[in-house]
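Lay summary. Proteins are chains of building blocks that fold into shapes, and those shapes determine what they do. In this project we predict the shape from the chain. Here is one chain we studied, written as its sequence of building blocks.
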Amino acid sequence: MIKKIAKGALALLLALGMAGCTSGTTTPTDSPIANLPNPMVSVDSADAFSAAGVNIDAPADATDVSYYTISGTLAGVQFTYDGEKYTYRASAKDDNISGIYYELTAQCIVMVECDGFCVDATVYAAEDKGKLVEWEHDGIHYALWHAGDTDDEKLTAALTGVMARTFNGVQSDPVSASLDFSKDGECEVDLDGDGLAEKVSIAAQSGEQYMIQDYCTLSVKDASGAEHTMNLQIQWATIATAYDFDADGRTELFISGDMESDDFVSYVIRFDGSELILAAPEVPYDNSGDMLIDVEPGTPQTEEPSFYGYIDTVNDGSLTVNQTLDILGTRGGSTTYLMDADSFRFAKDPSAPWVFRFDTNNTEDWEYMGMETSAEFPVRMDGTQEDATLPIGTEIAITEISLDGEEYVCRFVTRAGEEGTIRVTFVNTDTDYGCYINGVSEYDCFTVLHYAG
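And here is the predicted shape, written in a compact code that computers can read:
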């Protein structure tokens, strides 16, 4: 099965300004394939490429096909496909193989599904000189170049056409992938769906002069040059992704970062053409207990996060979020977040558990996350219908936690490989705080509990 493109419009995905970031530049020559290394040797067919360790060819119904090699390590094919001329290259040795030295702006990433794997191909605009598509698979680098203007659907057809000569089961209908701009801190993307790209950037700011925590500023410059900003309660961004999450033709921004001491938070932001709109907090902030303090004039105001934890994956219609949970110890795990059906707000999927990373064969995992029982308490072993107890001194590890009403259902595995569940009640009152198992404090049930801080 292949995923469908948002709104079924591949041309929209590949339109100039869909997404992008800028690389370094080198003065171009008059040739679209600049500075070709020598020697360039013509060969009779794609069979000659086996010596270079690559397997490429023109699309099956291409015309005017010619083949060449460069230095014995780079394979090249020139062809005409649906009336458009292309140059296609691959190398198992070199990674910078396109020969294109114009300023490149990444427009989007398209994901092409093949038998058993997917290939992510990045589409670049090379100033106004043409379009370049690059991808890598199994250590081999590929580059497809088209000089001048081209129809986006034709470019995609050429892309899947050349991939089909190398990979089995190539689907002809690729899907868009999210654009990660956390490394560069900037990109160009059409946020509001008007066909014009906004310039997006995120930068860390020092809060020292205001005696506040360092923070980040998100900046969005629209096509008119007007700048829209939002201050976020993160010292730096660890995740910054642009993606049309709900397939409505508008692109959301997903940003996660460290607020302080590995306390991660996330923001989901839209731009409607006139202002930045932040997804409402999962849990509304209660400032009733805040102390009134004098604030330095001009102190930047930061926004409350949309939810706590950091975004691991932006999926179609859901987010995979990593969070820290303090139940029978502190541990980090992943869960699923969904957007509300009737509002711009994200919240944990109540049916999704927190799944924790634990390797039962790893001695260090047992050392740092294992727990030893110091009392007998009710558990439900898998495959049974009645509660039982574990012998005192049993080593267990929590692998998953889910909510059942007011109780936390904690899945565990023993050193011996047996699995089961423990039901835990969490208490948070003015006089008591902590977890209880069948009315007994967690500290009376285990020899050591690994809580952070």
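What the prediction tells us: Residues 152-163 form the longest helix (12 residues).
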